[in-house]
Amino acid sequence: MHMAEPRSFVPEPQNGRDLRDAFGLFATGVTIVTTGDPSGCAAITVNSFSSVSMDPPLVLWSPARRSRRYAQFAEARHYAIHVLAADQHELAFAVARDATALQDLPLGRNGWGVPVLDQCLARFDCHRYAVHDAGDHAIVVGEVLRATMQQGDPLAFFGGRMARIDNN
Fold first, then answer.
1. Other beta carbons within 10 Å of 67
2. pLDDT for the residue 164
3. Are 84 and 44 in contact (CB under 8 A)?
4. What pTM was estimated for this model as a whole?
5. 16/41 Cα distance (integer angstroms)
6. Torsions phi, psi for 107 (to 5 deg)
7. Other CB atoms closer than 10 Å to residue 164's CB: what's the count?
8. DSSP string for 42-109
9. What does each C-alpha distance from 30 to 46, 55, 87, 122, 156 come to in angstroms?
10. Among 124, 110, 114, which residue's Cα sits nearest to residue 59?
């Protein structure tokens, strides 16, 4: 495989697209985070998810401060992180466009009252552990209270596009 010559740059406001493109070269999974709100369910599509610690069991994700959904999620005491399967790309896009995209679905609720999706590769039911400032985003750390998982092909995000990773 032949790779093009690397190109270096100093991140500045006028080349923000270049930095976003460089970040996009790190393939990530795709998740939907849900929490309960007075109208039922709020949801956000997130690819900034990572495990942090086994003891205590911690995960993190990073919502943008400018998002209209930011306060809802940064202040939520409980939320669920759903790791999406390859066939859930339309759901990921629907939630990315509309925080209420899950409102009309028959969602169950976990033991903490958070609306949850049944069909995903993994789900982490979390309690807010900490929220840290991180530039134009925040780092939300959750303690995993319960984890659920099943086998399947994951949905991935790479180079600004959704992709399927075959789990064979």
1. 14
2. 73
3. no
4. 0.89
5. 33
6. -90, 145
7. 13
8. EEEEE--EEEEEETTEEEEE--BTTSTTHHHHHS-SEEEEEEPBGGGHHHHHHHHH-TTTTTTS--EE
9. 6, 24, 12, 11, 6
10. 124
Number of residues that make up the chain: 168
Strand pairing of 155-158 and 57-61? unpaired
Domains of the chain in start order, with CATH, are 29-150 (2.30.110.10)
Neighbours of 89 (CB within 10 A): 18
137 bridge partner residues:
64, 134
CB atoms within 10 A of CB 149: 11
Q: Quick one: which H or E segment has residue 97?
A: helix 89-97
What percentage of residues in the chain have a pLDDT greater than 70?
A: 97
pLDDT digits (tens, 9 = 90+) for 119-166: 899 999 999 999 999 999 999 999 999 999 999 999 988 888 877 777
